Protein 1
Amino acid sequence: MISFPLKLMDSPHTILHSDLMPPLIPFKIGQPKKQIVPKTVEKDFEREYGKLQQLEDQTKKLQKDMKKSTDADLAMSKSAVKISCDLLSNPLCEQDPKFLEMVTALDTAMKRMDSFNQEKVNQIQKTVIEPLKKFSGVFPSLNMAVKRREQTLQDYKRLQSKVEKYEEKDKTGPILAKLHQAREELRPVKEDFEAKNKQLLEEMPKFYSSRIDYFKPSFESLIRAQVVYYTEMYKIFGDLTEQLDEPGPTDEEREKENEAKLNELRALSIVADD
């Protein structure tokens, strides 16, 4: 029996190529004249396994990208909190009560943002990243089942070639005995290969198709987590806007003001060019 657990796919949050499976290159053995696996069957097998290899690659890439995204989200909100804390400890705030009030409001908003961001990342980790990781964990068993099928196929070809060799010889007593023995060796290997091949051809398409039902809850959860987060961000920054009710200067006005102050600083002797 194939060991990869297809039943795992029945759970909504249990599991979504890898190079574990080497290229299916026949061993250097005598090749039988008889076509033991129809070309159409072999093409079907290669197609279905190729789809699963691609699915494995995509799953691992998605898991990696999701982890990078959540790490970046956390780094962003932590940096925002640090900036507001640094501003609070800046001597400028001690000298300007109005500016201190603005920075305090900003610090509160950034800490709220960081808290909601952490909740969002925890939910994504639980409902998206972990299911992706569990799904990826199924593929080594699948690849091993394919590898065992390939090994059995090589044994099948070797023994079929051996049978053909004795069938082509003169039917003397010793040759007939060897032919009988070769056929007896071939029979269980042939049955084993056919069973492995049949099961893989039946179960690989089922495994591939089940990915949709498995991952749909995860991606729905991802979307909801983002909606909740950005809804809260709208509220947080809305509250912050209300606290900063006085209209500020335009970007152009601020740029001119900064340039004027910078020119004043440049005029000081301590920063004057030699």
Protein 2
Amino acid sequence: MCSIFFSPRVLFYTYELNSGENYVCQTFNGRLGNHLYQYASIYGISKVNNLTIILGRNDDLVRYFEVPTARVFVNRDVCQTFVEKFANHCCVFDETFMNLPKNQNYKLGVYLQSWKYFQHVFEEVRNELTFKKEIRVKAKHVVNNYRNIYIAKYKENVTVVGVHIRRGDIASESFKLGGVVLVPDSYVRHAVDYFLEKFKSVVFIVCSDDINHAVEVMRYKNVSAEFVHQQPIYDLAILSHCDHVLTTSGSFGWWAGFLSRGTVTYYKYPMKEGTFERSEYNYDDYFPPVWIGLD
């Protein structure tokens, strides 16, 4: 039985779990990009195991995305009573999640970062992760504004490529000691060349946590580039509303690419060989095969 409350932004519940219905929760580790991957994976898992997803009203997925099929409660405290099942690696597909024992409620984790968990429901996942209207409208305005400026300049249609250049924590001294690779500028320029060769009249919209560095990287072949840095959710929405996406590293850029539905490039070697971080990844499980790996 559920008691329903209304707020200006979201419908949520206090609850007793419905008898005859089984539920699934996620651990939601990391930040926004990780959470998107985790939600998509439990969505795919829920579809083959007949489970209902529980979210809490303060989860970022609820604040920023429509998530129309999730059951949104005041919090996810009830999940602490569920059967736990955690993958051994963050970014390696574990097929056992696709055939869970029946008639149980599950708390799944930790990262579940593989497209294979939701390969059977790609478009449904994109529908779940439709941005809230305010975010969507603002992002479309930014992209369409630049598109129209360059259509007027070139007197023809243009192709808009979103570029996500992540540095921030990865560029710090502490990260240099680990296995995460700071994607080289040469890769970004290689990917720029790829798009320039593939499409006519390209304009790049660049989002980065280090705009000054991004400007230097994109000072290349007189490319047409515009630079944007807003709150992360708006950067993500702007990138995902571009025609195609150039990613560097991390799940944030991954999701910009996936939600764009366009051509996506990625750096082929995001982890240093022989490190713990590399052992956590099967690149074939992490990057969809239709994406373009470059170095």
Protein 3
Amino acid sequence: MEGLDLSASEPRTEEEKGPPLLGSGDPAGARASPSESSSGQRRRRRRLILLISLALLVLVVIVTLVAGILWRRSQRQQLLHWQGSGTTDSISEIILGRCFTYTRLKRPELRDKNCPEIWNAFKTAFLFKDQCNITEADYQPLEKLANQTLPCNKFLYWSKTYTLVHQYTMVEQDMFTLEDTLLGYMADGLDWCGDPGSSAMNHQSCPHWKKDCSNNPKSAFWKMASKWFAEAACGVVHVMLNGSTGKAAFQHTSTFGSVEIPNLHPDRVPLLEAWVMHDIGGNSSDSCSGASIHELRSLLNKRNIILMCEDDYKPAKLVQCVSHSEHSSCALT
């Protein structure tokens, strides 16, 4: 019909419709503006950069840890080689165990001692240091932590009589050798050392006091402990010497002669009793009338300390006879 627009009643194709109007209320068809699209891209880039940075940081940490582990392993493999035995296995457990045993069971009056702190002072004395330049001063913190007061008249020194003297103090428990104190008890019979380039103990070898160097961790410890044991002495002190070694019973180069005698205080130690013991049925190479005991007497006289000497001190001889009861000399004891 003329005058009518028939196209108004026909549906329009998508192409004819054209793009939807903004604000038409059709969210599915909404499009972001150029500024909004650019902002989203920047956020995505920032997230990507952050993720890459975190990944690099994690990688750096992993590489550092692996390098540290490999370095420590290489250091352990390159520990210096010495002529002496290496550190005793499980030394930390042994020393801590002995410390707790001594302070909780053997001498409970020392129960307030801090054993972990004592162990830390022990290892700090020589780890990360030149193992041939360890001094008594390195062990001073340990000495202070492990210090104890001992009764007068009960100090017993020894030279070349290790087994017998400790069998004797097991019976006479009110007598003290150095190894019957906390310091000596913890370290008795052990070996230890470290290395300048490692925090680990050297379990392969340690400096031999004669073949390598005398200022090693073990020797410095026993010098410190022996000096402390002499300086602490009071009253009548005693020493058990060996008259059956084939050598002099007293030697001024021994620990007793070179460390303990010089550090006795004459104002507190007026008298030293020496017991020269001989093996049951064994050799008698020296005695109280021998030249070495005269040398000992001369050294003590210069320090205003009187010496008394007895061959085969009877209580100690009885301890020897426990395992030699059939010997004729024991039958007469």
Protein 4
Amino acid sequence: MASATQQHRRRRAILQLAALLVLVSPAAAAGGACKSEKFPAGKSYETCADLPALGAALHWTYDAAASSLSVAFAAKPASGAGWVSWGINPTGDGMKGAQALLAFKSGATYVVNTYNLTGYKPLSPASTPIAFKATGLAADEGAGGKVRLYGTLQLPKGMESVNHIWQVGSAVANGVPAKHAFGQENLDAKGKLVLAGAGAPEAAPAPAAGDSSAESGSVEAESPSLPTPSGGKKSPPAGAASTTHASAPVLIVLLALVGFLAIV
């Protein structure tokens, strides 16, 4: 009788552990810390994702009928007097060619500039034209020293995914954002954002690191050509591969527990 009672207690403890592992698995925790962000009245977004570099998060709403993408990008500048930036690249997956929004504090208020990053030259103190109509540009301070950058971009009809980049810098001198660092996290700050298609939209992990195109670029006022829409071809849900790989250890533990239960 005592032996049977011990086995029952052992099975119950193991099942409780298995349930806990499932609850804390990456798949169950989808959404992450970005879900706790509190925005000012009148600002809300359908989807958010914690980005895989620089402690940044992106909140967005995509209106397919209007082809408009409203975003709130949140990140902590590399220093208190630094800057944050987010943008999309219609021609590649790095910084060169990106159409960027950049926010920094000037006195008591925030400035939001637009930059067409056509090369590797210093940025200017003023905005340069970008390929997408940008409205509602603003920025404020969030919790933990983060700067939140807001904006709405008018995208071409039929666009289902975009390459996006993000970055943080440490200084702004006379209205000119200084170059960011070139650590691994800075180089990894890029990925694909799925707007429509199969599966729920997510921010995919960054492509393989090491692309020198993550460097801050030129602000020459050029208008890069835009990509042709995908023609209705559905994109796979971004982030699916990373979720599968991240959840594998949990599945292995669960299988081991099932095998153990079978022999006790």
